[in-house]
Structures are given as structure tokens and as C-alpha cells.
């Protein structure tokens, strides 16, 4: 893995269905009904069921650790949840696309990766940055 | 309701011990679609230099966000849980969480402010082992929406 400033990570596209949200709810313990009930989601003004922000963050993290080859190399990670990922109740679900670029080389063998995470052409995370330990 | 800035720095008693199990880590890794064997296969984890299987980087939230809820239960904070959304999340991993860890979470209010009718509260959760070894620091910004129907 090369890590000069400007190096682009391989783009990753993740498909997210309602079944994925149910599985993530169970594994994470986040049972907020806006992630599984259209009735509740629309009652609070959402267009429909949305993905857990932390699920989207986890997917973007996978794009980084797929690149580093080592989940332990991701030592710092931050995102702002800008816009919800709306997940329709069908077999297609939603698509989340993750792109990343090495933004800076830091001290102590670390690098900052700047992430662009979109769904339906809109940015869903902002200020998404990972700090990775280079091999 | 505007948040009282005097809340910044308030700390809560440490959580009960959370014991990290291999099955839970495997369940979480499957839920985020990660098939890296360091999450599920102790031999693969040891070959990568870890004492046991390790957690995916965002697994920490399952412990830290539950711990941070102590803030919303504080009557001085006065935030209605049903209005709360997760605005920002930041992790600093001092080392990977691994199976067998006995973790204790200590929550502190790191920031509190009100912007445009929304209350923004940042909960810092320090995850350590029972013996005090630093494992992860989590900052979760929670947004209590002032107007129904507005999403953050």
C-alpha cells in the first residue's frame, strides 16, 4: 500500500437493505424505531426508515481497513452525520459509496485519510477522517 | 431549553464492567459485513500480533453510547431522549478492544451549547480496562432538536 499525499483508496460501494439494518440493530443494541419502522420514521419528519449513522460510519471504516489490510491500523476515526441514508423497503435498498484520499502524512508513522461518503449522489457524512498507522 | 454551560466538565461514576466476548465481536463484525478473520478467528488474530480476536473499530460505540446515556438521565441536563440524534462521533483507539477485555466506561460532559434552538451536548467516554489501561476515548455529540421534523 502506497501512502503519499493524494493517494486514492480503492472506491467501495456497499448495498444497504432493511435486513442489514435489523442485523445491525441487534448487534449494536440500537433499537431506535426510526431504523426499522416507516410509521415512526415518518412521524418524526423523515422520508422513511434511515440507516443508523454508526452503521454508515462502520461501512466507511471497512473501506479504510480494506486498504490498510489491518483493522488495528485505524487508530483515530471521526465523522459528522450530515444527511440520513434512506433505506427503502425493497430488495435493492440503498447504496453507500466510500472514496478516500490520503490527506496528510503525520508524525509517528501515521497518515490522515479524508473520506467522501455518499448515497444517492448526496454526501451523507461530512468531516469524515481516519488516522491510520502505516505499515 | 438552553443547556447550562456549567455542566461542562461534569463527570459520572464509572459504569459496571463490560466483558467483551468472542461471540459478540463475531456478531458485530458480521453485522457490518466485515469478513476479516482477526474478528472471528483467535489463531488469525494471534498471527497478526493480538492476544485474542479484536473488535472492528466502531464496535466501541456499543459500550460508549450506552455509557453516555447517563448524561441524558441527569435531571440537570433536561434533554428529552426522543428528540436526540447523533450529530458527530470521534474515536481515538489507544489499542484495539479484544475478547476477554473487562472494560469500564467513565463519562464526562465535554461540551454543551445551544445553537439555533438545538441543544448540542458532547459526551466524552473513556474506556479503560478494569486495571486502568486506556483502551479507547469516544466523543459523541448528541443533538436535541428544538423543532419537530428537523433532522440533523
Describe this structure in words.
- The complex is a heterodimer of chains A (135) and B (152).
- Chain A has 135 residues and is an alpha+beta fold.
- Chain A has a domain at 12-16 and 53-133: Hotdog Thioesterase (Thiol Ester Dehydrase, Chain A).
- Chain A is built from 3 helices and 5 strands; from the N terminus they run βαααββββ.
- Chain A has a 5-stranded antiparallel sheet with strand order 1-3-4-5-2.
- The longest helix of chain A is centred in the middle third of the chain and has 16 residues, at 53-68.
- The model of chain A has no long low-confidence stretch (mean pLDDT 96).
- By secondary structure, chain B is an alpha+beta fold.
- Chain B has a domain at 5-20 and 55-144: Thiol Ester Dehydrase, Chain A, CATH 3.10.129.10.
- Chain B is built from 3 helices and 5 strands, in the order βαααββββ.
- Chain B has helices at 22-31, 42-47, 61-72, and strands at 18-19, 84-93, 102-115, 118-129, 134-144.
- Chain B has a 5-stranded antiparallel sheet, with helices on one face.
- At the A-B interface, α1, α3 and β2 of A face α1, α3 and β2 of B.
Keywords:
heterodimer; A: 135 residues; alpha+beta; Thiol Ester Dehydrase, Chain A; five-stranded antiparallel sheet; 5 strands; 24% helix; elongated; B: 152 residues; 3 helices; 32% strand; disordered C terminus
Helix run count of chain A: 3
Low-pLDDT runs of 5+ residues of chain A are none
Instruction: Calculate the terminal CA-CA distance of chain A, rounded to whole Å.
Output: 8 Å
The pair of chains with the biggest contact is: A-B, 34 and 38 residues
CATH homologous superfamily title of the domain at 5-20 and 55-144 in chain B: Hotdog Thioesterase
Strand order of the largest sheet of chain A: 1-3-4-5-2
Helical content of chain B stands at: 10-25%
Query: Which CATH architecture of the domain at 12-16 and 53-133 in chain A would you pick?
Result: Roll
CATH architecture of the domain at 5-20 and 55-144 in chain B: Roll
Largest pleated sheet of chain B: 5 strands, antiparallel
How would a crystallographer describe the biggest sheet of chain A? 5 strands, antiparallel
Beta-strand percentage range of chain B: 25-35%
Give the % helix of chain A.
10-25%
The general outline of chain B is: elongated
